[in-house]
C-alpha cells in the first residue's frame, strides 16, 4: 500500500474528490483517507507518480509520506 501526505483536505467533499480522482484512473483501487492526519493510502495498480498527479489535478498538494 502506498501512502501520501496530502495538504488542503478539510471535509468529506475533499475525501470524495481525492478518492474519485484516483479511482478514475483505477476503478479497483482501494483508497483510505485519514483526514485528521492528512494521509491518503492507496492499494491498486497505479504507480506513485500517477497517484500524485491525480491528487494534484483534484486541487491538493501531495508528497510521499
TrEMBL record:
Keywords: Metal-binding. PROSITE patterns: HMA_1 (PS01047), HMA_2 (PS50846). The keyword Transmembrane helix does not apply. Pfam families: HMA. InterPro entries: Heavy-metal-associated_CS, HMA_dom, HMA_dom_sf. Residues 1-63 form the HMA domain. It comes from the Bacteria. The keyword Metal-binding applies. One of its GO terms (molecular function) is metal ion binding. This is Cation transporter. It comes from Ectopseudomonas alcaliphila.
